Amino acid sequence: MAVSLTIDNSALAPIAGRLVKRGGLAGADRVWALAFVTPYVGIFFAFVLYPVCYGLWLGSDPASYRQLLADPVYPSAIVNTLLYLLIAVNLKLFLALLLSGLFMRKGWRMKTLLLIFILPWAVPGIPTFISIHWMLNSQWGLINNAIWELFQTDGPPWLDNSTLALSSVIYAHIWKWLPFWTIIFLAGRMAIPRELYEAAEMDGASSFGRFIHITFPLLASLYLVCTLLSTIWALGDFNSVRFVSGGGPALSTHVLATLGIRNAFELGNPALGMATVLSALPLLIPLVMLLMRQLKKGEVQL
Amino acid sequence: MTQLSRRHAIAGIGALTAASTLKPRRAKAAEPVTVWWTQGFYQAENQAVIDAMAGWEKVSGTKVNLTIMNGPDLISKVIAAMQVGDVPDLIHAVTGDRFLVPRAAWDDKLIDLSDVIETQKDEFHQTALANSRFYNAALKQYSYYAVPIKCATLMEQTWRPMIEEAGFSDADIPKTQDAYFDFFQVVQDKLRSKGKRIYGLGYSMATKEADSGNLFHSFLVAYGGAGIVLPNGKLNIEDPAVRKAAVTALERLTTPYKKGYVPPGAINWGDVDNNNAFFARQIVMTPNATISIAVAQMEKPDQYYKQIITQGVPDGNDGKPVPSLVGVSPCLIPKGAKNVDGAKALLKAFIQPNNLNTYLKETRARFLPVTMSIIKNDPYWQDPSDPHRPIAVQAGLIKPTMPWWMTYNPAYSAVLSEQIWSQAEANITQKNMTPEQATEEASGRIKAIFERFQIA
Amino acid sequence: MSVASRARLDRRLVDASVAMVSVVLIIWTIVPLYNMVRVALQEKEDVFSNSVFPTTVTWHSFETAFRESYWLLANFWGQMGTSFYIGVSVAFLTLAIGTLTSFTISRMKIRRGWMLTNAALLTYMIPMSFLAIPFYSIMGKYGLTDNPLSVIAVEVTFATPYAIFIFKQYGASIPQELDEAARIDGASPPQIFFRIYLPLMAPALVAIGTYALLLSWNEYLYAFLLLSSDGNITVPVGLGKFLNSDEAPWNYLMAAAIIYALPPMAIYYAFRRKMNSGLTMGGVKG
Prior knowledge:
The complex is a heterotrimer of chains A (302), B (456) and C (286). Chain A contains 15 helices and no strands. Chain A has two domains: 36 residues; 225 residues, MetI-like fold (Orthogonal Bundle). Chain B has 456 residues and is an alpha/beta fold. Chain B folds into two domains: 225 residues, 3-Layer(aba) Sandwich (D-Maltodextrin-Binding Protein, domain 2), CATH 3.40.190.10; 216 residues, Periplasmic binding protein-like II (D-Maltodextrin-Binding Protein, domain 2, 3-Layer(aba) Sandwich), CATH 3.40.190.10. In chain B, helix 20 packs antiparallel against helix 21. Chain B is globular and about 70 Å long. With 286 residues, chain C is mainly alpha-helical. The chains are: A mainly alpha (302), B alpha/beta (456), C mainly alpha (286). At the A-C interface, helix 1, helix 2, helix 5, helix 6 and helix 7 of A face helix 1, helix 3, helix 4, helix 5 and helix 6 of C.
């Protein structure tokens, strides 16, 4: 990914400030600018604003929310969503941060490892999630077959117990998306000038010390932005739950995204489905605001 | 979503040419009919509808845009299409009688098909007919919002080699409810003692799709709970007999699971997974909505004729036959369809006994006919040399049958979609509720659902 | 112990732990993929066998997928074509719209450009899958039912904000003086865009193009909802049909899935140098 980290952009600030202050455009330039942004503005109105407003309207019936609150699956879906976000996103990003350090090492071995490591991201999600679903089947899945061959005992019922099933979904999510975020952090690390490390090494800092005093502070705001972005994306993650646990057993691993689809299309109540997902707004709006603020500060360049 | 392929058209001309007597007015022939059809479980099922539609194109001069989608997907897409109002002209939805038509009729989203029904009214099996009648809340009346195409009732399929390996023969399989389901636990014990990793009972207890609900309700009826909803649409769950039946059904379904006679994964099974487990020879028996398990193996005579046993649901514990709950796969026309006349003409031709019979036979008779004359006139259906088909005919059409309760009140369709009873089973197996507590919780939720569907 | 031997020991320890972590990573990455291959290499009947390794290896299922000789794969290559059409269109449109917008915001300095940036982020206010229901409706209203364009539109909508965001950040490394110099020489905005901006953005373009292509290649929900007829569905939707059949032909499903996985892998590996150079460039500009 094209990622960079601005260590110090104060030198550019006056120029940028002058340009912004000058503001506005004249004549032909103005026409060009309008022409250039038109496609995106068009998309925004046609495919963002309109569907969002329609969705809000569809999900505005108070009766839907009453029905939602009466559904015993709903509270468990909220808990699952929160667990999913807290565990999957944080674990994934933390691992990605550590692994990105590993991939900073030189040599063909690391390059080869990176090529293999990237596979889950490069391979389409649906078939791999189906593969994980089968792999975890307690009767004839690969994992329990292996456990049977090694230990002559039945393995855990991965998808037939709600805690294990939710863990399996979290595992699938991390497996799929760990490479993507590792690359983001790898790029972030590469943007840190070597001299900083060399100076630290001369001062006798240990590798742990270098991580704590150089890498982490410099990557901190990138890490925060990634956490926000990943949380927002994970909240809408439908595929890993749908294809790994299917919301089972006994509807105990639904998250809001899959419960919304179930309510809309399996129970045949689109308004209820919309209400289900809209109930995530109190969580989403602060996240998006925080993301906007964080990016406006301009300190992070992802 | 297999598209109509011209290649096969020739083979299928026969299917609907008999309909030539019923040609629609040519004036409208130019307008195409858009048809959505549930995907078959094996290729012949798809081919049969492709052929039938190609035949109709020839006969009528109407172009048919056929889209074939798998069962749950089709219903999701119909619900989405109805929400928007951009709908196909004709829909055939297997399990639509449970998950689609009742509430769509209630919401006044379907075209009244009484005139289509009328053309074959005397021919239809009474239960199939009853299963096509639904309540419209806008008009405050019952009417025919579906046309029955094919029907089925719960069948039990068993591996004969496994029974024999356990030291039994066909004749040892008990005929009554409790004894029947206990028998397979004994079979499992015997097989396990020989070191086999096999489960005696292979039934779904999942909170999705139709199989688990089919079995629970067949248990409910077997234990005397058939009156859970009255023909006037009122919920009757407080009736002590119904409640006792529900408690017993839950208890009898969950105890074998807890004891390890049902695969642990069965709480997650989709409708196809019991079939898969059966073919993988991991289970001795499995209940299935149709005889698809046997039919899919038709080209393997050894399995079809020798190894797979088909039976109807067992009799009650008192030895009297239990009425079969018959599910009907309906055709429907949504409001907003652009070519209602074309769709109705197609439907009228399709349900003529000859055409219907050709279609059903081409699907290899996974489903049963809905008209009795087909059974009487074509020896195919009661062919004594076939080990499966005549048994399905007996169970679904000849012995006492009853319709599902959605036809009295669409609320029961919501009860099925929301998987209330399967959740009750899960409450017992996963959360250690007693069957009484689970029944209490389920009946509370069912009452709340019925609150939303008041029949005037 | 001398300093040198101490350092050698340290290095050995590090090397050993790196090797261990690498092995764990490889196993972690490979297992689900191996499972796909294992299923694909078996005959239909052996799929449920209690084995870790395929009992009998056969390429039969790949051959079946190639020749479309199984009923559920009857239009496999057609679906592949649709997936390509959608994927390439999404990548191209995302790049085009993303670069134009970010160019205007950051290079032409239009007034209220921040509004566009924030609007882009607002797209994430409601996650992609949450809007399935409204999207189904509005595509009906736009007359795009069962039309691959509808899926392209949705995917472009959700890929563009991230594209704008990355382009804006990446573009900041291209000195403004270049634009100003070109302007003094009389270059018009399109000329600056095509001759200066785009070439310098190449690594970011590759990265985002791959991102958009993979987003589209992974997409199931919208393709499933918005497309119906066999001529229009994508491979993931076609594979979804396998999950409802009595024959459990899962070896075919996985063989088809593996074939489907090859193009994005090839694209990733073909472009990885470009991507890596994109990464290093990001490092240099600091």
